[in-house]
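Q: Hi! First time doing this. I have a protein sequence and I read that you can turn it into a structure. Is that right? Here it is:
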Amino acid sequence: MVKEKVKIDAVDSARAYLYGLFSLFFTFTYDKGVVDEILNGLNTVIENPINVQMQRAALRLKEKLESDRDAFFDEYDSLFLAPDGDMIRTSASYFTEGIESGKKRLEMIDFVVQTPYRKSKDYTDNEDDLGFVLSFMSKIAYDGDKFKALQKQVFERIINVFIDELLDEIYKSKNSNIFKDIVEMMSPFVEFERLYFEVEKPKKERKQAKEMGRVLPYKNLKRRKERSKKVESEVCDTSIEDEEPVEEVD
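A: Yes, that's right. Below is the predicted 3D structure, encoded as structure tokens:
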């Protein structure tokens, strides 16, 4: 099926690009090629930043990744795949309900089925996980005005309700170095999106957690074990596919 060509203005093109870049930071993979994708994206951000904070953070991040590419994967492990007590969760459900796979996942699935895009078979986190949400927003932003109302719903109902708490938790973590710069890059963009959609910053606090940690998919656990042995693991190339069945909710 040939996709219909859509007109997209410069602002939406830049927004879509940034959503895609940021999704790379939160999508599980040990494919070394993702660092090349990130570096290319950082060059674009450095040349066309939202503000000086974003530009400086991108410059620092570029220098760190060029000096030690493995540091990105090591830090991802320490932040998001650590033992339960230290692991940072990245789902909207966890930050709003204290559980994984809650109401925000159902909301996100409802948004997804309004489009031709679906979760990739290789993507193991839920639909309300930040990596998937950012990737999905990139896709529908590239569709121009076609899904503009849906973009606002996803931002207001999913991203906006937990992004500040999540970024703050990442920034304050003792294991955060590379991701501190990622937070400083993303924060101005979040504020830009609030202005763009005319959405206010939420003032509610996170609920008490009902689970002590996310249940990691078997595939992820296997990859961690393989990586500790310096074995290359299977790569999850993307979190979004066209016209694939949506995973059913348990």
